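can u do me a favor
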């Protein structure tokens, strides 16, 4: 009887301990349930067998001080297949900046003011003919949680200071939740 009980407990532990996964259909339903269909999209490319979850934010409202015409961001990640089996360690965060003259070419570190954490310099790219700058960062999940939940939503990008709006914070929180197969 004791052996049977031990085997049953071990079998239950193995089932619980196995990694959970979340299908693209479930993720799509969660996007809709969260009311995020406008900003977050899930796509699947059958030729490459790759899924991509990406959110695109509205423009920042406090760009005037920096001299940029407009700035928004995209946040997302890709995974193999049409089922998310593990949360990504890092999520890609890209700022798209419309500006007549480069503002971030020389300095483009991202610093969260809530905890003073310097996330380092992003990968910088510019398209001067299109008046565009791109700053690409790989953000750890813990830092995304800070961005999504802190009341001090300001951050430094280069020498300029910006703040995430509540809608932008919600998008970050939604991507973070959607990227977790256990949720």
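np, heres the sequence
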């Amino acid at each position: 009887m004791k052996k049977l009980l031990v085997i049953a407990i071990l079998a239950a532990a193995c089932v619980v301990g196995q990694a959970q996964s979340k299908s693209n259909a479930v993720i799509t339903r969660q996007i809709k349930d969260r009311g995020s269909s406008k900003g977050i999209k899930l796509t699947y490319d059958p030729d490459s067998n790759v899924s991509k979850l990406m959110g695109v934010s509205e423009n920042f409202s406090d760009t005037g001080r920096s001299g940029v015409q407009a700035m928004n961001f995209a946040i997302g990640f890709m995974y193999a297949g049409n089922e998310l089996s593990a949360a990504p360690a890092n999520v890609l965060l890209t700022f798209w900046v419309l500006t007549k003259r480069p503002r971030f070419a020389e300095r483009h570190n991202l610093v969260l003011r809530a905890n003073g954490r310097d996330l380092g310099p992003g990968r910088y790219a510019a398209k001067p003919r299109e008046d565009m700058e791109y700053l690409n960062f790989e953000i750890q999940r813990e830092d995304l949680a800070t961005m999504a939940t802190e009341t001090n939503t300001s951050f430094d990008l280069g020498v300029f200071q910006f703040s995430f709006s509540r809608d932008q914070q919600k998008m970050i929180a939604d991507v973070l939740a959607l990227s977790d197969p256990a949720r």
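Confidence is low (pLDDT under 50) at residues 4-17. hope that helps!!
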